[in-house]
Amino acid sequence: MNRLSSRRAVLSAVVATVLLGLTWEPSRTAGAADEKRMIGGVEEVLLLPWGLTVRARVDTGAAISSVDARAIEVRGEEGARTVHFTLVGGDERQLPVTLPLGGPRLVRTPGGQSRRRPVVLIEICVAGVRTMTEVTLNDRSRLRHRVLLGRNLLEGRFVVDVARALTAPPACPSAP
Questions:
Q1: CA 136 from centre of chain
Q2: Where are the beta strands (DSSP E) in the chain?
Q3: pLDDT of 54-106, one tens digit each?
Q4: Does residue 132 sit in helix, strand or coil?
Q5: Which of 79, 81, 113, 163 counts the most CB atoms within 10 A of its CB?
Q6: What is the DSSP letter of 9?
Q7: Which band of pLDDT confidence, cut at 50, 70 and 90, is reported for residue 27?
């Protein structure tokens, strides 16, 4: 009988440990999670160094971010190519911009078609976080949001809660 009681005690301890493990949630402030900022499905972002504030759609399904650009023109010789375009802000302010071409990128449109778009490197401020990131240039005038934030910008920096929006101002610290 003593042996049976001992087995029951061990079994009870194992069951309790398993159940506790199934219900335990790590603290939201522990480990790597506290290094990531929570953002919503739509956020205001700041395009630097131009100081343009625009609304961005956060899209974890998009591999690369995209910025609204008009009159896109690639110029120059191979190895020294630049792209000239007009950057459009949320207030409809338009700025002519010239940046080095990072190369073309094949992207899939919502309709399932593949399109080749120019890629440039820009700095974007999201929820107080400054990030240099590649973006494709695309005329987004028919879309609700001027910027689309893709996984290349989000990964390792942000956690997305699509039920929320406009969670933080786009203000960022000065450049180091």
A1: 13
A2: 37-40, 42-48, 52-58, 65-75, 82-88, 94-100, 103-108, 114-126, 129-138, 147-149, 158-161
A3: 999 999 999 999 999 999 999 998 888 999 999 988 788 899 999 999 988 88
A4: strand
A5: 81
A6: H
A7: very low
The yes-or-no verdict on residue 23 having pLDDT over 60 is no
Tell me if 72 sits within 8 A of 81, measured CB to CB: no
| pLDDT of 26 over the 60 cut | no
State in Å, rounded, how far the first CA of the chain is from the last one. Answer: 72
Q: What is the DSSP letter of 114?
A: E
Q: Any bridge partners for residue 42, and if so which? A: 57
Q: What is the pTM of this model?
A: 0.76
Task: Give the separation between CA 170 and CA 121, rounded to whole angstroms.
Answer: 19
Place of tokens 């910027």: 147
Tokens of 25: 């949630």
Q: What are phi and psi of 69, to 5 degrees?
A: -140, 140
The CATH class for the domain spanning 37-161 reads: mainly beta
Percent of the chain with pLDDT strictly greater than 70: 79
The DSSP bridge partners found for residue 48 are 123
Q: Residue 40 and residue 158: Cα distance in Å, rounded?
A: 10
> Tokens 């949630």 sit at which residue?
25
Report the DSSP beta bridge partners of residue 40: 161
